[in-house]
Design brief:
alpha+beta, 15% strand, eleven-stranded mixed sheet
Length: 424
């Protein structure tokens, strides 16, 4: 880092500080005019700061939602036909099944883990302390790892529990509160339809910002009861025409393109299902790319609007400084007559422009923060802050102001001293 030596401090004291004091005197002398000039910078920077906060908040929210789906995952949902169409479809395909998952794992080298989900139709869900209308999902033990779910209390059921058809359950935070309003869910029993299951764990609430991302449902685990997949398939009644699995999550090897993996998975499923399109494939990475594209368009449009505001503010600074040059012609002529050089006059006016920009930027940052939180409160959008982006907005504001101040400064410096002194 460069440090100011004695010579640098002397230059600062002899030139820049007097110019700064003079600029402050000029702004204070024309308070109303200065305030009106500042408005362009204030609104421009405020718009930029608010736009950056909303954009950054949207980006972080999208990443949080994608993490909830699993950035390396592929999600296959059963697309169940209805009525007679389902009967006809079952002649060619049994629907999404555990056998599909095992075939994908054995055939495609980039698929290294899977988890099945079966949504259970529930007509009874209660304990001795309360009842709930939560969904009941039967899942493979690997499901918790693939969706980054953790136990707040107790533990998650294991592969051994699944293989042995153990009658155990893991509750979401909301379901646990409904079924056991007095607390103490661990070790207690819950009845799912006709089956009693023992609670072995309660999930930690991830507090996702939304329950939908790009049209796909995300989260909602707090209002669910989870059973081992094979336990539910064996001990709970299911319709023979329904797919064995409602959903299948696949984890793709890190570094392998999820989009290429999705094409291979869809091709293999089509072959196994006799060409029946009874599955729907979702690629979280593709959803993230779509969201980012939308976010980029939003950022470009908002940046253009904010940029126009800053340009208008810069033009305002140029106008006010041109007026100041005309008012101060005799002062400028006197300065030149006593030995001031052209660069001294240029510096004085540029310092004034920079001071206007700095004050406008500071007030604009405050206004941008207020606007951002107002948007968050009324529109429900997420906001987040990036200090480098805020600093960049301030620097751009000052650069525009100084840039627009160059012409008035040069005009002042090039005035003929004799003619300027004769000005009344």
């Amino acid at each position: 880092m460069t440090r100011l030596g004695p010579l640098g401090l002397d230059t600062l004291a002899r030139h820049w500080l007097p110019d700064l004091r003079q600029a402050m005197v000029q702004l204070a002398h024309h308070r109303l005019r200065s305030a009106l000039t500042l408005l362009g910078m204030i609104f421009g920077v405020g718009a930029v700061i608010a736009m950056l906060a909303v954009s950054e908040g949207g980006r972080l929210q999208a990443l949080t939602m994608i993490e909830g789906m699993g950035v390396d995952n592929l999600i296959v949902d059963a697309a169940e036909p209805q009525g007679d169409e389902r009967r006809e479809s079952r002649k060619h395909s049994a629907g999404l099944s555990v056998a599909d998952a095992q075939a994908l794992l054995e055939t495609l080298p980039f698929v290294h883990d899977w988890a099945g989900v079966r949504v259970i139709q529930t007509w009874n869900l209660f304990s001795r302390q309360g009842e709930s209308h939560a969904q009941v999902w039967a899942v493979s033990p690997a499901y918790f790892g693939l969706t980054r779910l953790e136990a707040a209390t107790g533990e998650l059921f294991s592969t051994q529990d699944d293989d042995e058809f153990a009658q155990v359950a893991v509750l979401g935070e909301v379901a646990a509160r409904q079924l056991f309003p007095n607390g103490g869910a661990l070790g207690r029993f819950v009845k799912v339809n006709h089956l009693w299951v023992k609670v072995v764990g309660v999930l930690r609430d991830r507090q996702l910002p939304d329950n939908e991302f790009q049209g796909e449902r995300v989260g909602g685990e707090g209002d669910r009861v989870y059973l081992p997949l094979h336990t539910a398939l064996r001990r709970l009644r299911v319709s023979p025409l329904d797919s064995q699995l409602s959903q299948l999550k696949l984890r793709v090897t890190r570094g392998f393109s999820p989009l290429a993996a999705a094409d291979a998975v869809q091709h293999l499923l089509d072959r196994r299902h006799g060409g029946q399109r009874d599955t729907r494939l979702t690629v979280p990475v593709r959803l993230l790319a779509q969201h980012q594209q939308t976010q980029r368009i939003f950022t470009i449009v908002m940046s253009a609007v904010a940029g126009i505001s800053l340009l208008v503010g810069g033009i305002g600074i140029m106008n006010i400084m041109m007026a100041s040059v005309m008012e101060r012609r005799s002062e400028i002529g006197l300065l030149r007559a006593v030995g001031a050089r052209e660069r001294d006059i240029v510096r004085q006016f540029l310092v004034e422009a920079a001071l206007i920009a700095l004050l406008g930027a500071a007030a604009g940052v405050v206004l941008g923060v207020v606007i951002a939180y107002a948007i968050a409160a009324f529109a429900g959008w997420a906001v987040a802050w990036s200090l480098p982006a805020i600093a960049l907005a301030v620097v751009v504001c000052m650069a525009i102001a100084v840039g627009f101040g160059v012409y008035p400064a040069l005009s002042a410096a090039r005035l003929d001293p004799v003619a300027a002194l004769q000005t009344e």
